[in-house]
Amino acid sequence: MNDPTPPAPTPPAPAPPGADRPAETAVRLGGPEYQRAPAALYRDLRRRYGGVAPVLLDGDVPAWLVLGYAELGHVTAHDELFARDSRRWNRWGSVPPDWPLLPFVGHRPSVLFTEGAEHQRRAGVITEALEAVDQFELAHGCRRIAELLVDGFAGCGEAELMARYAHALPMRAAIRMCGLPDRGPDAEELVRDLGVALDVGEGDDPVGAYARVQARIQRLVQDKRAAPGPDVASRMLAHPAALTDEQIVQDLIALIAGAQQPTGNWIGNTLRLLLTDDRFALQVSGGRLSVGQALNEVLWLDTPIQNFIGRWAVRDTTLAGRRIRAGDCLVLGLAAANTDPGIWPDGRVGAENAAHLSFGNGEHRCPYPAPLLADVMARTAVETLLERLPDVVLAVEPEQLAWRPSVWMRGPTELPVRFTPVAG
Questions:
Q1: Which of 400, 364, 291 is closest to 113 using CA atoms?
Q2: Region entry Disordered: which residue ranges (predicted)?
Q3: For residue 329, what is the enclosing H or E element?
Q4: Hey, CA dihedral for 231, 237, 241, 247, is it positive or negative?
């Protein structure tokens, strides 16, 4: 999962000869048109370039956007050609120190940037720690968190669900799963800091917030080393791979970040679908089948992680007829690949199967238990809200909803609703 937290970047190396080649045909990834209709941009890029398109990131930094389902599968299945260590990038010499995407690509000692046997070792620790999570206990804990959150606004008759519910629930569930309390002043401070570090707003200090998050997770690791418990952090510490405390801190932060933002937007996007699509209008009162269909459809059509940066070419190669040079950056277009007409030739994107790429693919996909645990969080959140507030409706017209101004994450900025007030 992508980890949008401020790194301690490796000092950039000079760009090699040829790295500053012209990119006049590249298309800027982002802007108002993209925010309104990203699918239209993907269709246009696919029509013009095929499965791989030249794009410009923030600051007109060039990269390749992998649009095709088959092409993305090829990239993620061949780590020997397209690797994860960002220190290979041939653009470091021209990237400014305040580049806004540094939090995504600056190398640090996290599992996200490991490769080969080291990645298998680090990912194995996380996988085994997550496999031991009792899904029934997680669902019970999520239900308790959901009830408390709903109690906070149920008597008002109106609420904004993204901040107060969709993002708050997986954040609290994730820190609880890792061994931290999800209530109390310490938890409230950690939740606030994680929110700032992961989703920067005007006037926020993400670097300061991240430093506090890191310090809190360092204390957690120290506490769990002294007094282990039935939690993910303790299991990672006890694993025979014997990771260092620094490695465990970094991997816990990546795990919490990966659980919170994508799952929060998955919940928000699913609630938006249920509240705006007539196909679900007669079944939104908590029916398990309709909620399951909506959750899966969102992963195909409005996947929380739209694009993932990235992979870096190990050597010169070709992909979909494009010449990819050693050190080039590839952005994984998960949303574009999920709607590739090559897999939906009749033009109708269905939600009947789970072959989407929303959790990644290959060795660096989300560790196997993570999608199952995210589903528990998201399903519990949606079902609990609809059970507690059965007449909930959108408080604005659907077209008034605004999407996050991001090419990486997909979710409403706000989801205002109204309902009959009920006692908490």
A1: 364
A2: 1-30
A3: strand 329-332
A4: positive
Phi/psi-derived region of residue 191, left when phi > 0, alpha when psi is between -120 and 50, beta in every other case: alpha
* 267 neighbors 302 (Cβ within 8 angstroms): no
Task: Encode pLDDT of 41-99 as tens digits.
Answer: 999 999 999 999 999 998 899 999 999 999 999 999 999 999 999 999 999 998 988 88
- Given a contact cutoff of 8 angstroms between Cβ atoms, the answer to whether 382 and 116 are in contact is no
3-state class (DSSP) for residue 387: helix
How do residues 264-290 score in pLDDT, each as one tens digit? 999 999 999 999 988 876 554 544 448
Positive or negative torsion for Cα 345, 348, 349, 355? negative
Does the structure show a pLDDT above 70 at 133?
Answer: yes
d(CA 282, CA 270): 16
Pairwise CA distance, residues 282 & 274, whole Å = 10
Contact 268, 233 (CB under 8 A): no
pLDDT score of 12 more than 60: no
Written as six digits, the tokens of 156 are 């008002």
* pTM of the model as a whole: 0.89
Using only C-alpha atoms, the chain has a radius of gyration, in whole angstroms, of 21
Judged by DSSP in three states, 351 sits in coil
Residues 6+ apart with CB under 8 A from 285: 386, 387, 390
Q: How far is CA 405 from the centre of its chain?
A: 15
Report the distance separating Cα 224 and Cα 366, nearest Å.
Answer: 25
**Polymer length of the chain:** 424
Sign of the CA dihedral with 304 first, then 120, 108, and 207 last = positive
For the domain made up of 27-418, the CATH class stated in words is mainly alpha
User: How confident is the model at residue 211, as a pLDDT?
Assistant: 84
Backbone angles phi, psi at 100, to 5 degrees: -65, -20
Report how far Cα 118 is from the mean position of its chain's Cα atoms: 23
Tokens matching residue 49: 């370039």
How many whole angstroms separate alpha carbon 156 and alpha carbon 149? 13
CA 209 to chain centre: 19
Q: Could you give the CA distance from residue 109 to residue 359 in angstroms, rounded to a whole number?
A: 22
Which phi and psi (to 5°) does residue 370 adopt? -60, -45
Say whether pLDDT at 17 is over 50: no
Q: Which of 117, 124, 15, 85 is nearest to 314 (CA)?
A: 85
